[in-house]
Write a structure and sequence with these properties.
Ig-like_fold; seven-stranded mixed β-sheet; Ig-like_dom_sf; five-stranded antiparallel β-sheet; Immunoglobulin-like; mainly beta; 57 strands
């Protein structure tokens, strides 16, 4: 209910406030609603908003300005609080009858700090309305404790202690420098240093800033703004109380040159787990980024201290470096080279030139991606030809070198064979061999002359009798289906291909045949008794005929 000592006409309305905010729709002199412990309510007559009522609280409470403060030995601290209570309890106005600070209890009752012999002559408490302070002078290490405020009212149950209280630490405030970097634009940045304590400093104090051990003049505030920061500089702060410098923070500085380590150490095998770590002495602690150099391109890999490969590959070989960065600067590590070892990949094989002619120089080449570099062995079939090199050279290749070849690539991590490579040596025909079948040739029989020559590509054959060509073609055979005596003679064959021509040795065909009709001669043609007369009988035959003379009827 909003009460006024003056009588107001009925037409006047009211304004209600909750925690300083106007409550809409509430115009009567009474207001009902839901309140929490921290709510404070006041009212005013509409039109007289400049003269609101005092705010009232609905709960008991003590609020401390800070719940954790610190002070140095021999200094002075001031602890602040405010308290609240219901303005009426059981329709009786509340009145505070006592208020004090305490640390200890006596006979289970809080002992007023002013009556505590440990604080005699060193403490003073003051209140202004609902706000109170406790001042402790000439701090001692034994003063480190929890300080609580208690107030007592006229109500039987109206006693309240603010708990938890304020923790006072009489010790080193553990100063530290916080760093905040801000970017003004793409060309300008500034860095702000703040000297902070792990608790609120209660003493009247100022700050001293140091740069590389030298005091920075005219910088006496908690904040120190740097312009054009040099990453080689180190800064720290201290506090000054009653003209005396006390306590110093650890220095802050940009990262030193990062150190890089690789695990496992030694050789790195493909498929293994590898971790690279980056560390740098820096304050504030550095943030790390890993890069891989790739010509002019240096891709950013990870933004963390470690770069890990669960199964490293040959493509991961290369030069890496890390950067360490904090708000005060950025430093890059030295380059570290990662050389991934792996067994040979399937070899590729080639032959040069592609067309191979007997007598020419021919090179077989075998290559395989391997680390360390592979050693090569060439094989023809299962016979080793050359070991150690990836090339095998025929300075003057022959037809005997024709065949299938493969190479073996090997290093300490594995061995693998290539696919086969067929070497097809081209050469002119060798001296043809000739034969006749059957060996005994009888007139009227079938007779075959055969000519063959080793050559690549296959030869074409031509048979000759004397200088007369008989047959030409890829087949080296010449057949007499019914040989006659006229076919007797000397024959040879010619074998030829793109690379040359050669003649065989001659072969004599001797056709055997029965005697032809004999011819009979008498000499002289005029025969006189008593003279010499010769009878001659001759017949064409092979072999030569034997002759027998007969006289008719005898």
């Amino acid at each position: 209910m909003c009460l006024n000592r003056c009588s107001l006409p009925d037409r006047f309305t009211y304004i209600w406030y909750k925690n300083g905010q106007k409550i809409q729709g509430q115009t009567s002199n009474t207001y009902s609603g839901y309140f929490v412990d921290t709510d404070r309510v006041s009212c005013a007559v509409r039109g007289q908003e400049l003269f609101p009522s005092p705010s009232v609280s609905f709960t008991w409470g003590v609020t401390y300005t800070s719940t954790k403060i610190c002070g140095s030995k021999g200094s002075t601290v001031v602890i602040h609080c405010s308290y609240r209570y219901p303005s009426r309890v059981n329709n009786v106005n509340t009145r505070v009858t006592d208020r004090f600070w305490f640390v200890k209890t006596k006979y289970n009752e809080p002992l007023d700090l002013k009556e505590d012999s440990d604080y005699s002559g060193r403490v003073e408490d003051q209140c202004n309305g609902n706000s109170c302070t406790l001042t402790i002078r000439d701090l001692r290490e034994t003063d480190s404790a929890e300080y609580k405020f208690r107030f007592i009212t006229n109500h039987e149950s109206g006693r309240y202690t603010g708990s938890p209280g304020v923790m006072l630490s009489v010790s080193d405030p553990q100063l530290q420098v916080d760093v905040r970097k801000s970017t003004v634009n793409q060309f300008s940045t500034w860095t702000e240093l703040t000297c902070r304590s792990n608790c609120q400093l209660s003493d009247p104090h100022s700050y001293i800033w140091y740069k590389n051990g030298e005091k920075v003049e005219r910088e006496r505030k908690e904040y120190y703004i740097l312009d054009g920061f040099d990453p080689s500089n180190k800064y720290y702060c201290s506090i000054e109380v009653s003209g005396h410098e006390r306590f110093r923070s650890p220095p802050v500085y940009a990262p030193n040159l990062p150190l890089v380590s690789v695990l496992p150490s030694g050789q790195i095998k493909k498929g293994s787990s590898v971790t690279m770590s980056c560390s740098s002495d820096a304050k504030p602690a550095a943030k790390y980024t890993w890069y891989k150099k790739n010509g002019t391109d240096e891709p950013r890999l990870v933004d963390q201290e470690r770069l890990s490969f669960s199964s490293i590959q040959s493509s991961d070989s290369g030069d890496y470096y890390c950067t360490a960065e904090n708000e005060l600067g950025r430093t890059g590590s030295e380059i570290i080279s990662i050389d991934v070892k792996y067994p040979p990949h399937p070899p590729s094989v080639s032959v040069s030139p592609s067309e191979i002619v007997e007598g020419s120089s021919v090179t077989l080449t075998c290559s395989s991606d391997a680390n360390p570099a592979a050693k090569y062995t060439w094989y023809k079939g299962n016979r080793q030809h050359v070991h150690g090199r990836g090339t095998y050279i025929f300075t003057s290749i022959s037809s005997k070198n024709r065949g299938k070849y493969y190479c073996e690539a090997k290093n300490q991590y594995g061995v693998i064979n290539s696919t086969s490579l067929f070497i097809n040596v081209q050469y002119r025909p060798n001296l043809p061999s000739v034969s006749v079948s059957p060996s005994e040739i009888v007139e009227g029989s079938s007779v075959t002359l055969t000519c063959s020559s080793d050559s690549n590509p296959a030869a074409n054959y031509t048979w000759y009798k004397g200088n007369r060509q008989l047959i030409d073609g890829q087949e080296g055979n010449f057949t007499f289906t019914s040989i006659s005596s006229n076919d007797t003679g000397t024959y040879y064959c010619e074998a030829g291909n793109y690379y040359g021509v050669i003649n065989s040795t001659s072969i004599v065909i001797d056709v055997r045949y029965r005697p032809n009709l004999p011819s009979v001669l008498v000499s002289p043609s005029e025969i006189v008794e008593g003279s010499s007369v010769t009878l001659t009988c001759s017949s064409d035959a092979n072999p030569a005929a034997n002759y027998t003379w007969y006289k008719e009827n005898e």
